[in-house]
Design goal:
Helix content: over 70%
Structural class: mainly alpha
CATH architecture: Orthogonal Bundle
Number of helices: 15
Number of domains: 1
């Protein structure tokens, strides 16, 4: 049994029913659209987001119809942003498969993203889930702002640590925070419970993103993600920010010059990776990741014991120990 299957077990029945409901929520009268959405559903990932929704709901109360709609809303809106992201990034692959834009071109991909977005909005409006819609819409706004802030800062390569945390809180953590907040809000009227779960999700999301950033500095073959990708894309991640902060002026200028002008040359990218390792950037980022993991677990400790709490605890630990 895989780690994810074990973590999922307290909500395995709900997740199975959710998959059917999610497929139904994407149905359309347009054959081309049905073909594309079927392709998207078939190539789904680990489904961590709906898992966070259902486990959070089970931690705070009893899973109900509203919980299923919350999970579907998040998946619809998130899938829409991924389809649009692949167009923006001119990316032909998604999770090892061809992206929608690679198979059906940009125009169709943008329209499919718009369709998924509208399905999520209508699912909420038709069922008067306005509070859930507010939570998720806020996350989509934050994700967009985080991406734009990162693009703006990448041009100048001058990201300080507080700005980095702002970016990842918006880009990554806001979505996991909204999963946990929606799960809680679907079963409990208590605003304090929803806020606790949102904070839990935010801390988990920040730890998750730092782990992702660390993959860039591993050895090829050890991990699922190739090394140096962030450097090639001029993304300033925590290990690099820390290393640059400790470098003298000439070394800093040399490294920034490589990132700006030589980021397609493997041997120059390897120089940056070696510089980060030597400067203690990996250890520092790992320490920060563990601090956020511990903050998330600290919030969980305030809830009553049970299988949902145990599974969420294991899910937080998994996000910081995964190998891809």
């Amino acid at each position: 049994m895989s780690v994810i299957t074990k973590i999922k077990s307290p909500v395995a029945v709900e997740m199975e029913l959710f998959e059917r409901k999610f497929r139904d929520s994407m149905k359309s009268n347009v054959p081309l659209l049905d073909k594309i959405t079927a392709y998207i559903v078939k190539r789904k990932g680990k489904q961590l987001r709906p898992m966070f929704v259902f486990l959070s709901a089970k931690l705070c109360g009893e899973v109900n119809d509203s919980t299923y709609r919350a999970a579907a809303l998040i998946e619809l809106l998130h899938t829409a942003t991924l389809v649009h992201d692949d167009v923006v990034d001119d990316s032909n692959m998604r999770r090892g498969f061809f992206s929608v834009n690679a198979l059906w071109k940009n125009k169709i991909a943008v329209l499919v993203g718009d369709f998924l977005l509208s399905r999520g909005l209508l699912l909420s409006v038709d069922n008067k889930d306005f509070h859930l819609l507010g939570i998720v819409s806020n996350a989509v706004r934050e994700m967009s702002e985080g991406e734009l802030l990162q693009i703006e800062k990448a041009r100048r390569l001058d990201i300080a640590e507080p700005v980095y945390f702002d970016i990842i809180r918006q880009k990554t953590a806001s979505l996991i925070a909204s999963c946990c907040a929606c799960g809680a809000a679907s079963v409990s009227p208590e605003k304090s419970t929803e806020d606790q779960m949102r904070q839990f999700g935010e801390y988990t999301g920040i730890a998750f993103q730092i782990k992702d950033d660390l993959f860039d500095y591993g050895k090829t073959g050890d991990i699922g993600k190739p090394t140096g990708i962030d450097i090639k894309e001029k993304k300033m991640t925590l290990p690099l920010i820390f290393a640059l902060g400790r470098a003298d002026r000439s070394e800093k200028r040399r490294i920034i010059n490589i990132i700006r002008n030589h980021n397609e040359e493997p041997e120059r990218v390897a120089e940056v990776i070696a510089f980060v390792h030597k400067s203690g950037g990996i250890e520092y980022a790992t320490q920060k990741m563990n601090e956020y993991k511990d903050k998330a677990l600290g919030i969980l400790d305030q809830f009553k014991d049970g299988e949902a709490k145990t599974a969420l605890r294991e899910l937080v630990i998994y996000t910081t120990q995964r190998d891809k």
